[in-house]
Amino acid sequence: MTAERPPFHFYSRTHLTELTGLKARTLPELRDVLRTAPDAVVYYHTHHFFEEHLFLRQVPSNDFAYWAGAALFDSVLEETLAAVNIMDFASLPALRDRFVSIIDEYLSMHPDVRTAPEGMEFHFMKSITAVMPTPYTAGNLREFLETIRQVSSNSIYFHFIEARLRLGHVQNDFSLWLRDSLGEDDLAGRVGRLDPYMYSLEGLRSALIQLIERRLR
Amino acid sequence: MNSTYVGGGVAEILSHMVPLLRQLGVDARWDVIKGNEDFFRVTKTFHNALHGRAETLTEADFARFRETSEANIRELELFGDYMFIHDPQPIALVARKKEIGRRWVWRCHIDVSHPAPSVWEYLQPFILQYDGAVFSAPAFSPSLAIRQFLVSPSIDPLSDKNRDLPDATIDAVLAKYAVPRDKPIITQVSRFDYLKDPVGVIRAFEIVRRTVDCRLVLAGGTATDDPESEAVLAEVRQRAGGNPDIHVLLVPPNSDLEINAFQTASTIVIQKSLREGFGLTVSEALWKARPVVASAVGGITLQVLHNVTGLLSHTVEGTALAIRQLLANPEYARWLGQNGREHVRHNFLITRHIKDYLLLFLALEQGGDVLML
């Protein structure tokens, strides 16, 4: 007798921004607040551009990098911070530590502290996410493909990006289910290697669909 | 709760949001406080002081605020689970928190990044009684012992002010107000208020007009809670003098279609505010894909991303330069306008605003950063 394979339940999400009242005008101030900032702050500043400026062809990678360029006029630091690949990190504390260590290293080599002009301070914010069930489920790969075509981009975002970093799932939800419930190890691996930060959400949906269609051929 | 049913962005948002919330099954109600001219003179002074303008407030002014607030606290029939109190005028109603409602939220639409300490310190004990505060831009967020949220205001894309208009309607409105469409039109839509800098707009236009043949439309109204607007309008009319290319138009309340027509007919829309909580007229213009030149103040910087969704300026001369650049480069102006419309579609429509408020209620009830529904 084979164990019943649990279907994939699609969830969706939406978010609200909470203000902390904390701000930084210099790089050491940025580092000091960031060092003890809650995970929700790290998440906000590494993901909100992705959510809010989807119409831009080239979205800045994170707020820390953008601020280094726009407020401190430091393009080298901007590039270094922008190059942090979120996919390399399994948790928000690890991601925060990476930004802190980059800033520490940079300050040790560039002790002259620049101050952001009035009005260009870095304001720390938190992302509050609400996760909600949708009526969509999939019990096999064909149903999964059809449902991926229908769900909102917020569902794709939640399962591919947010669940991994905020709910502590070791991988994106799609790869986990494909491997654990369907035994589709190869497809799960291919899906897991997609870098969502390099796509728009619709581009990510198309890439997922292509991988599944290829497997079903 | 706010202080007026007519005039200004708060009343406009509530007039669209309350019916939509009711359609969603939320028993939303809107009421306003009562106050006489003297009370609103004091609260307008509060408003200016919170925006950072040097103002003088006497003990008698604070006493007037207290007396009117106490009368409203006594006389208003308040009810509800979630109380949303907009801006400083009704702020003292929180005195009834123990008796009414589950959560009280103070919704601040003002740029309080550099408030006059006398007024801020006076208001802070009221603010701290609320369960949460909402601001329109990150820079407005002070250090407070209550939770604070960022919620941008919004426009209703299906309203008369923002829906697509047929050319015939636009022509009719411009004809009614005697604004010929024979040359580029530059428009600022704003209540007549010093903080919107209408005189600065005229000065910028005069610089542009030296080299480019164009018209300026300054269209706005007055609000029942703004006793200064008549004086500002008189000053603007005097400054415009007899220049036939400057059209200073006092439009009556609820002239949404007319405002829409002026914005849609404009070659460039400007918002040269000195301080701005948010500046909904910017989103209105961006939604119509108009190229926008606006001051880099307050919530405007969330809407106009410099060189992406419009041009930001800091001075009269900078505003004039940006207008000239856009008039000389219509392709670039069109590209900015299209980006602006997309920016508003994603971030500043009323559907997003309602979602934020509903989420805010949940966040205050549940706590935590990830809410599982």
As for the number of domains of chain A, it is 2
Strand content of chain B: 5-15%
> Strands of the biggest beta sheet of chain A: in what spatial order?
1-2
Q: What is the CA-based Rg of chain B, rounded?
A: 21 Å
Helix content of chain A: 40-55%
Secondary structure class of chain A reads alpha+beta
Overall outline of chain B: globular
Name the overall outline of chain A. elongated
Number of strands of chain A: 2
Helix content of chain B: 40-55%
- Give the structural class of chain B: alpha/beta
Structure, briefly:
The complex is a heterodimer of chains A (217) and B (373). Chain A is an alpha+beta fold and 217 residues long.
How would you describe what is shown here?
With 217 residues, chain A is an alpha+beta fold. Chain A contains 10 helices and 2 strands. Chain A is elongated, with a radius of gyration of 19 Å. The mean pLDDT of chain A is 92. With 373 residues, chain B is of the alpha/beta class. In chain B, strands 7-6-5-8-9-10 form a 6-stranded parallel beta sheet, sandwiched between helices. A 4-stranded parallel beta sheet of chain B has the order 1-2-3-4, covered by helices on one side. The radius of gyration of chain B is 21 Å and the shape is globular. The chains are: A alpha+beta (217), B alpha/beta (373). The A-B interface holds A 14-22, 38-40, 52-56, 119, 121, 123, 125-133, 166-167 and B 135, 138-139, 141-144, 147-151, 296, 308, 339, 342-343, 345-347, 355-356, 359-360, 362-363, 369-373. Strand 2 (122-138) of chain A pairs parallel with strand 11 (370-372) of chain B, so a sheet runs across the interface.
Q: How are the secondary structure elements laid out?
A:
The complex is a heterodimer of chains A (217) and B (373).
Chain A: E1 8-24, H1 27-35, H2 39-52, H3 63-70, H4 75-82, H5 92-109, E2 122-138, H6 141-150, H7 153-166, H8 173-180, H9 185-192, H10 201-216
Antiparallel strand pairs in A: 1-2
Helix pairs in contact in A: 1-5, 2-5, 3-4, 6-10, 7-10, 8-9
Chain B: H1 8-23, H2 37-50, H3 59-75, E1 82-86, E2 103-107, H4 117-127, E3 132-135, E4 147-150, H5 167-176, E5 185-189, H6 198-209, E6 215-220, H7 229-240, E7 246-250, H8 256-265, E8 268-271, H9 280-287, E9 292-295, H10 300-303, E10 311-313, H11 316-328, H12 330-347, H13 350-366, E11 370-372
Parallel strand pairs in B: 1-2, 2-3, 3-4, 5-6, 5-8, 6-7, 8-9, 9-10
